[in-house]
From TrEMBL:
<dbReference type="InterPro" id="IPR002912">
    <property type="entry name" value="ACT_dom"/>
</dbReference>
<dbReference type="InterPro" id="IPR036291">
    <property type="entry name" value="NAD(P)-bd_dom_sf"/>
</dbReference>
<dbReference type="InterPro" id="IPR050812">
    <property type="entry name" value="Preph/Arog_dehydrog"/>
</dbReference>
<keyword id="KW-0827">Tyrosine biosynthesis</keyword>
<keyword id="KW-0057">Aromatic amino acid biosynthesis</keyword>
<dbReference type="InterPro" id="IPR045865">
    <property type="entry name" value="ACT-like_dom_sf"/>
</dbReference>
<dbReference type="Pfam" id="PF20463">
    <property type="entry name" value="PDH_C"/>
</dbReference>
<comment type="pathway">
    <text>Amino-acid biosynthesis; L-tyrosine biosynthesis; (4-hydroxyphenyl)pyruvate from prephenate (NAD(+) route): step 1/1.</text>
</comment>
<dbReference type="Pfam" id="PF02153">
    <property type="entry name" value="PDH_N"/>
</dbReference>
<dbReference type="InterPro" id="IPR046825">
    <property type="entry name" value="PDH_C"/>
</dbReference>
<dbReference type="GO" id="GO:0006571">
    <property type="term" value="P:tyrosine biosynthetic process"/>
</dbReference>
<dbReference type="InterPro" id="IPR046826">
    <property type="entry name" value="PDH_N"/>
</dbReference>
<dbReference type="InterPro" id="IPR008927">
    <property type="entry name" value="6-PGluconate_DH-like_C_sf"/>
</dbReference>
<keyword id="KW-0560">Oxidoreductase</keyword>
<dbReference type="GO" id="GO:0070403">
    <property type="term" value="F:NAD+ binding"/>
</dbReference>
<dbReference type="GO" id="GO:0004665">
    <property type="term" value="F:prephenate dehydrogenase (NADP+) activity"/>
</dbReference>
<comment type="similarity">
    <text>Belongs to the prephenate/arogenate dehydrogenase family.</text>
</comment>
Length: 361
């Protein structure tokens, strides 16, 4: 594969274009908003020039409701030999593609499981897909060459291919992506009119839960509209769990000892279920989850401090598996939480303290 057309230069389309141009492919950019395409081109994602003939692959990077219409137009123009879309919902677009009479032999649905809370070409990153799952949902008549082109695209972007049925994909993303987005927004909405004193107490927990609440509402309306029923089913189940949890919390306030014990058992049960579910989330590079321990270091708000800390940790031969920064409200310090292998915790803690770092116990 040498030439690609990206139709839709938002976050996902532009990120794919950046990844492909870095690998030496010639990428042509299209968008209903010419300014968006020009912005992507200015970032080095490709060219807005029309290709001389059919490109090898066209990537349809538009909202789910537009996939069928845009694919039909691209195929009518003979834009490419093979086609894929990267919409986050697959069943609806596939039904529309079939209803419009599109060529499904040379088309395969796909969905890179990557994104950011920001949208648009300026939020794009060439490494957005590295190490991330990229789902492929072939139709019954998708041919081998089309599947191979999609697999090559996934490899060029550094992602991991997963072949799934379209309906199974939609159920899965409703659980791991769409419902969490709404839940994050619901929690963040509680902060909108909260007392300023309460908001200033926000720590890393609420920051983690509400991070994706900063996402673009219009974009998510498009996504959720295409998968609304499945997401509603999951939220109904979550609502039932919330109801049981509220009942358990109320029981903890009663004078009856038996009811308090029942309430405590209910809270412990939901927490343990959460422990079990969280433990199933894959670790780095999709590997089985690994338990790391955290070393928390106080970090001053001066240029170069974070780099100096990372440099000293690297010099000790300790690999940082993950990192989080917790800011201290109203103070010029923060806490850097370094996730490392359990065997390295004691050695790292002692060495950092010897080098003058303040490490929290």
């Amino acid at each position: 594969m040498r030439t690609v057309a990206v139709v839709g230069t938002g976050l996902i389309g532009t990120s794919a274009a950046l990844a492909l141009t870095r690998r030496g492919l010639h990428v042509h950019l299209e968008d209903a908003d010419p300014d968006a395409a020009r912005t992507a081109a200015s970032l080095g994602a490709g060219t807005t020039e029309t290709p001389d003939g059919p490109v090898d692959l066209a990537i349809i990077a538009v909202p789910p409701a537009l996939v069928g219409k845009v694919l039909a137009d691209c195929q009518r123009r003979g834009l490419a030999r093979w086609y894929t879309d990267v919409a986050s919902v697959k069943s609806g677009p596939r039904a529309e593609v079939t209803a419009l009479g599109c060529d499904t032999v040379h088309y395969i649905g796909s969905h890179p499981m990557a994104g950011r809370e920001r949208s648009g070409p300026l939020a794009a990153r060439a490494d957005l897909f590295e190490g991330r799952p990229w789902v492929l949902t072939p139709t019954p008549d998708t041919d081998t060459e089309t599947l191979n082109a999609a697999l090559e695209l996934v490899a060029l972007c550094g992602a991991m291919p997963i072949v799934m049925d379209a309906a199974a994909h939609d159920r899965a993303v409703a659980l791991v992506s769409h419902a969490p987005q709404l839940f994050s927004s619901l929690v963040a909405a509680r902060l909108e009119h909260a007392d300023e004193t309460a908001v200033r107490l926000s720590g890393q927990g609420v920051r983690d839960v509400t991070r994706i609440a900063a996402s673009n509402p219009a974009m998510w309306v498009d996504i959720l509209s295409a998968n609304a029923g499945v997401v509603a089913d999951i939220l109904e189940e979550l609502a039932a769990d919330l109801g049981d949890t509220v009942t358990a919390l109320r029981a903890l306030q009663t004078a009856d000892e038996g009811e308090r014990r029942s309430g405590a058992a209910g809270i412990e049960a939901v927490m343990r279920r959460g422990n079990a579910g969280q433990a199933r989330i894959p670790g780095k590079h999709g590997a089985p989850p690994t338990r790391y321990e955290t070393v928390a270091v106080v970090l001053g708000d001066q240029p170069g401090e974070l780099g100096r800390l990372f440099g000293e940790v690297g010099a000790l031969g300790v690999n940082i598996e993950d990192v989080a920064i917790e800011h201290s409200s109203g103070q010029q310090v923060g806490f850097v939480q370094l996730s490392v292998a359990p065997a390295a915790v004691k050695r790292l803690t002692v060495a950092l303290r010897e080098h003058g770092w303040s490490v929290r116990d």
